[in-house]
Amino acid sequence: MTGDLSPIDKAKFVAARRAADIVQDGMRVGLGTGSTAAWMVRRLGDRVQQEGLRIKAVPTSTRTAQLARELGIEVVSLDQAGWLDLTIDGADEFDGDLNLIKGGGGAHLQEKIVATASDQMIVIADAGKEVETLGAFPLPVEVIPFGWQTTRTLIQEALDTMDVLGTSAALRMNGEAPFVTDEGNHILDLHLQRIGNARQLALVLNQVPGVVENGLFIDICDKVVIGHGDGRVELRDINDGTIELDQSVEAGENLFSDLAD
Ligand SMILES: O=C(CO)[C@H](O)[C@H](O)COP(=O)(O)O
């Protein structure tokens, strides 16, 4: 079975598993969206079934909500939970300050609200997501459908004043039709190549009328759990600067054998 998983998927799996094991009984937990987050939700589902772990989970998309419910995890709304102990989510890119690009799965609006309403955000990612400077991954910007082409023009004008290399903004498609988010909006993917000042760009984008939220997560992530294809896992904490490295390749291989179903 392990042969079926690519090294990237193995890396995502070990990172997700390690982060899911940080969750403690009684916690209110934000559940991210995407393939890495799905591994984490599955592991939490196992813990609920096998250990009797009791958590209240706030999903960041209808996809994640459905998966969590199927696995027997108690799902509540963010307003019911009020505030969360922890959110665990994937990312498309992270830099040395643990600033992120998210939204490759189109869920960054709810993801940002949920992560911001948490004591701690832990990102789970394969090592290939780490970058020196954000921007190689196209930056998702959620816009309302009304007048989206005008919004795109306004975004491009704003980008012309910024320290970015490119300015092309592509409407995300789902087959022949525009992609529609859980909130009924569209997404413009900004192909910028390199974002010189991510903090400033995040503020500028959200000032454009029609923009609902951009995929830059600045000063939101506290910790990253980085998985490697051979089972090694690295934990980095931005608050105290600690780095832990689990070199147990063998442990990673045992984990992969758990995937036999
Ligand atoms: O931001 C996201 C969804 O909006 C995801 O976390 C991000 O796209 C990473 O996805 P994956 O874990 O599948 O690589």
UniProtKB/TrEMBL annotation:
Biological-process GO terms, alphabetical: D-ribose metabolic process; pentose-phosphate shunt, non-oxidative branch
Lineage, uppermost ranks: Bacteria, Pseudomonadati, Pseudomonadota, Alphaproteobacteria, Rhodobacterales
Pfam families for the chain: Rib_5-P_isom_A
Keyword Transmembrane on entry: no
Quaternary data: Homodimer.
Biological role: Catalyzes the reversible conversion of ribose-5-phosphate to ribulose 5-phosphate.
PANTHER family for the chain: RIBOSE-5-PHOSPHATE ISOMERASE
Annotated source species: Ruegeria atlantica
Any Gene Ontology CC annotation: cytosol
Designated name of the protein: Ribose-5-phosphate isomerase A
Residues that bind substrate: T33, G34, S35, T36, D89, G90, A91, D92, K102, G103, G104, G105, K129
InterPro entries the UniProt entry points to: NagB/RpiA_transferase-like, Ribose5P_isomerase_typA_subgr, Ribose5P_isomerase_type_A
Gene Ontology MF annotations: ribose-5-phosphate isomerase activity
Entry-linked SUPFAM superfamilies: D-ribose-5-phosphate isomerase (RpiA), lid domain (SSF75445), NagB/RpiA/CoA transferase-like (SSF100950)
Homology family: Belongs to the ribose 5-phosphate isomerase family.
